[in-house]
Design a protein that fits this description.
CATH superfamily of one domain: Glutamine synthetase/guanido kinase, catalytic domain
Largest sheet: 8 strands, antiparallel
CATH topology of one domain: Creatine Kinase, Chain A, domain 2
Number of strands: 10
CATH architecture of one domain: 2-Layer Sandwich
Length: about 350
């Protein structure tokens, strides 16, 4: 396994696998924030201390203990080019913060890319588990297994009354962030999403864009996650999120059924127009590509389009991001050049799908 494999392969194995409710839920993620007791938090420590944290974790981690996930690869951020870090971020393997702000950060990646252990992000350790479809409990089980294994080797910063201590007060307690990535075109097209998001926020959850805080909901893809980590158990946090997401799934399916009954020909026309744009455009911007890909995915799920894999949305949403486009081009591209290459790549991929 090598860096090139993580960089050059657009779709992780978890993204191409089928999971429960995968027509709406693209992925389930569990992230645990942890810190090492004898070190300052990353927001305060020096570069030398950051290197010591990496050395300590590297020294403690024995790859053979992760055999069920395959080999683990340690990637040091200061050895990566900015474009390489951007590609890893676009694949959701590292956070935007680690890609952009942590010169002395690192990441341990499993071969199947389901497990990512980020080092020296906002916290010393962030364990991330990604599963396809609606599998929050399964992702939590794996994250807890990795967490227990690490805690046997590393002395975590922990308070008996409060719980795990973290750089950001909103993560104190369990240190748990649970999230699902959802494709919600039905709720967007029926204009229900604008009233649903504030209602979700009132329940202590948050709705963000495809790359988390501060990002847009490109292609009608939203991340729904918990906000509170203190005062609840991990299982309670996950069950609360599951309950809300289950309602969202039901509402999205109802919205799609309503569109099919009341606007069937208009919806079918929208799907095929978007498919035509993707199949024939010579220049396409990222927002238009994301919108059209969302329409095509909806068309696949609703049976308007056949012989095209639904995973094409997962793949092309990654392949058409700026980092991947420039990676395939072998160097930097101006925005206009990216739009041309994006259109070319989509056309080629759709032709492959139809062969």
């Amino acid at each position: 396994m090598s860096l090139e494999r993580f960089i050059n392969q657009a779709v992780s194995s978890w993204m191409s696998a089928e999971g429960p409710d995968s027509d709406i839920i693209l992925s389930s993620r569990i992230r645990l924030a942890r810190n090492i007791s004898q070190f300052k938090f990353p927001i305060l420590f020096s570069n030398d201390e950051a290197k010591s944290v990496i050395h300590k974790i590297k020294e403690r981690v024995d790859d053979s203990s992760f055999t069920k996930l395959g080999n683990m690869e340690l990637l040091l951020m200061d050895e990566l080019q900015p474009l390489q870090k951007r590609v890893l971020m676009e694949k959701h393997l590292i956070s935007p913060y680690l890609a952009e702000n942590s010169s002395y950060g690192a990441c341990l990646l499993s071969e199947n890319e389901e497990l990512s252990i980020m080092i020296n992000e906002e916290d010393h350790i962030r364990i991330q588990c990604l599963f396809p479809g609606f599998q929050l409990l399964e992702a939590l089980e794996m994250a807890n297994e990795i967490d227990d294994w690490l805690e046997e080797k590393i002395d975590y910063a922990f308070d008996e009354n409060i719980g795990y201590l973290t750089s950001c007060p909103t993560n104190v307690g369990t240190g748990l962030r649970a999230s699902v990535m959802m494709h919600l075109p039905g709720l967007v097209l029926t204009q229900q999403i604008n009233r649903i998001i504030p209602a979700i926020n009132q329940l202590g959850l948050v709705v963000r864009g495809i790359y988390g805080e501060g990002s847009e909901a490109l292609g009608n893809i939203f991340q729904v996650s918990n906000q509170l980590t203190l005062g609840k158990s991990e299982i309670d946090i996950v069950e609360d999120l599951k309950s809300v997401v289950s309602q969202l799934i039901s509402q999205e399916r109802s919205a799609r059924e309503a569109l099919e009954k009341t606007s069937n020909i208009q919806l079918e026309d929208r799907v095929f127009r978007s498919f035509g744009i993707l199949s024939n455009s010579r220049i396409i911007e990222s927002k238009e590509a994301a919108r059209c890909l969302s329409d095509v995915r909806l068309g696949i799920d609703m049976g308007y389009l056949s012989d095209i894999s639904k995973n094409i949305l997962n793949e092309l949403m990654i392949l058409t991001q700026p980092g991947f486009l420039q990676q395939y081009a072998g160097g930097p591209l101006r925005p206009h050049e990216r739009d041309i290459r994006r259109a070319s790549l989509i056309r080629e991929r759709l032709k492959m799908e139809n062969q």
